[in-house]
Design a protein that fits this description.
Layout lengths: L5 H35 L11 E3 L5 E7 L10 E9 L9 E8 L4 E2 L5 E7 L2 E7 L5 E11 L2 E11 L1
Antiparallel strand pairs: 1-2, 2-3, 3-7, 4-5, 4-8, 6-7, 8-9
């Protein structure tokens, strides 16, 4: 049996390399196309940007205030979250989870914000808030208190 010469080995290596690079370029182009489609989707025109919202099932009335006044971009800051029952009573000893994302870009926050302190009278300190870019953001707070759980969503358009 004849051994392949160095020229045929080189040709096979070039063919393999070209095919691999072509495949990677194709995957990259598909991924970029999908990302651009998300980014070019329009922000709904009927979004509520208020800082006080009723939770999905109407159990809690929730509001927030950023420690910096307005919500900054690319700056670590805190929020004070105020939670009341639907009839206006402060919610004490709630368990709260925090999540945020940028619907048009398909990514979340660069940090993992969490409630670090119950300030009393329905107020909770949220540490680790940071938004790495301007645009439409959605913050979700899942609140559990007195055996009931509900979620509130806040829309923000940051500049």
């Amino acid at each position: 049996m004849k051994q392949p010469n160095s020229k045929s080995k080189l040709v096979r290596a070039l063919i393999w390399t070209s095919g691999t690079l072509g495949g990677l370029v194709l995957i990259y182009m598909i991924a970029m196309n999908m990302m651009m489609a998300q980014m070019n989707s329009e922000v709904p025109t009927d979004l509520d940007y208020s800082t006080t919202r009723l939770s999905e099932n109407g159990l809690f009335n929730v509001s927030y205030i950023a420690s910096t006044g307005t919500v900054p971009v690319n700056q670590l800051h805190q929020w004070t979250l105020h939670i009341e029952t639907a009839d206006g009573q402060p919610v004490e000893n709630a368990t709260i989870t925090v999540d945020g994302d940028m619907p048009q870009h398909g990514h979340g926050l660069p940090t993992q914000p969490r409630v670090t302190k119950n300030l009393g009278n329905g107020d909770y300190l949220v540490d680790g808030m940071k938004f790495q870019m301007g645009g439409w953001w959605v913050m979700d707070f899942n609140v559990t208190a007195n055996g009931q759980t509900d979620t509130v969503h806040f829309n923000m358009m940051l500049k």
